[in-house]
Amino acid sequence: RPTGQCDAGYFCSGGATSPQPVSLLNSSALLGVNCTTVDVTGGICPVAAYCPPGSPYPVPCTAGMYCAESGLQRPSGLCSAGFYCTVGSSVPNPVDGVCTSGHYCPNGTDVPRPCAPGTYQT
Questions:
Q1: Beta bridge partners of 103
Q2: Pairing relation of β-strands 113-114 and 42-44?
Q3: What is the pTM for the complete model shown?
Q4: Which of 80, 90, 113, 116 would bridge with 48, disulfide CB 3.0–4.6 Å?
């Protein structure tokens, strides 16, 4: 029977022996870690994703939001006004997410919204 859930900000993909498994893919995380405690069955949640408690894998950041750092248990915040954030955004103002002419993008926009009839946006 499992001892408990994986900690928030971490994911346990199966067979984990710790609530905060360390991935071998991130060698900087191994500094000062005894090799016998390394767990390749999960890891810290990466940038552009989040991991609520008990996550079996990283959840790509929700569209309209951004996940700026590793180890998040929820998105960092809403995408900035004037920009839109697709799934997996890591910044609130992505270079490839500038709101386009004829559209508007309030905070938290996932897809640019067309201007209503009788209005415009340059």
A1: 114
A2: unpaired
A3: 0.82
A4: 90
